[in-house]
Amino acid sequence: MTRASRRSPHGLLVLCALAVALNVLGAPTRASAQSNVTAFMTLYGWADNSPPGPIIAHPNCANGGHGSAGGTGTFSDPVTFATDVNELGWCHLIYVPYMKRYFIHEDECSECDSNWNSFHLYRFDMWAGGDANSRKKPEKRALRACEFMWTRANSIADPNNPTVIVDPPSNLPVTTAPIFSGPTTCWSPVSITNPGKQSSALGHPVSLQINATDASPSETLAYQVANLPGGLSINPASGLISGNPTVLGRRHVTVTVSDSVDSASITFIWTVKKH
């Protein structure tokens, strides 16, 4: 399969500098069993597979493989990913912490081939999903947006590329929620319900529960808030905002909820009046 590049001009400059450095210092080597590597993580789906659809290059993996692109993300049913076969052999598993999923190498990626051959740096292209409807709007646009949302950094040379575990153990935290579900749903690991506009009276007790859920039941959520009216605070473990407002005015309050690797935020208006 092939995919369009998303490299930014900054990424290209980094790559040029990297090429010079690799000539001097040498390139990283292929990963050994159960190792951590830094990788440029991209995604592809039904619409931008080549040809469009779920066809994969290597539908013969016995250890949780598939006849076509798919998988739920567990150790026994990993999601398809594509890369250069010289970078990582067929049927190898990786675990992506920020996606909370296992992936299995059963597809080819021409950009990954080029990246590995030129720089010997890791690039993994994860299957996002989609179906025949994702070849047209609105699903096509939503699928591309979801792929972009979960792509990490700008190029294989980006120092912010995430760490991925090659040939991982079987007991790591997993979510099985689809990365993309048609027509427009993109996976969100942390979901928060926005309570909407709030209005309180100066000096009167306040109690507002922020409700959030995590796609991984094993995760613990932590709550933070910015720009609360004076006199109010949030419980970092439960998400309960309480106290007695001491300052009049209108605030744009932002609540951020985080687990071990992901976070989500909401913003709402809170007005404190005299009565």
Describe this structure as you would to a colleague.
The chain has two domains: 29-186; 191-273, Immunoglobulin-like, CATH 2.60.40. By secondary structure, it is of the alpha+beta class. 14% of the residues lie in helices and 32% in strands. The protein has three helices and 17 strands. The protein has helices at residues 9-25, 110-119, 139-150, and strands at residues 35-45, 79-82, 93-96, 101-107, 122-129, 163-166, 180-181, 185-186, 190-192, 198-201, 206-209, 212-214, 222-226, 232-234, 240-243, 249-258, 263-273. A six-stranded mixed β-barrel has the order 1-5-2-4-3-6. Strands 10-17-16-13 form a four-stranded mixed sheet, with no helix packed on it. The chain has a three-stranded antiparallel sheet with strand order 11-15-14, with no helix packed on it.
On the 0 to 100 scale, the average pLDDT is 89
Tally of extended strands?
A: 17
Structural class: alpha+beta
Euclidean distance between termini CA atoms: 64 Å
Helical amount: 10-25%
The ordered H/E elements are HEEEEHEHEEEEEEEEEEEE
> In what order do the strands lie side by side in the largest sheet?
1-5-2-4-3-6
The biggest sheet amounts to: 6 strands, mixed, barrel
Taking Cα atoms only, what radius of gyration do you get, to the nearest Å?
A: 22 Å
Tally of separate helices: 3
- Which stretches are poorly predicted, pLDDT < 50 over at least 5 residues? 1-17, 19-26
Portion in beta strands? 25-35%
Tally of distinct domains: 2
State the shape.
elongated
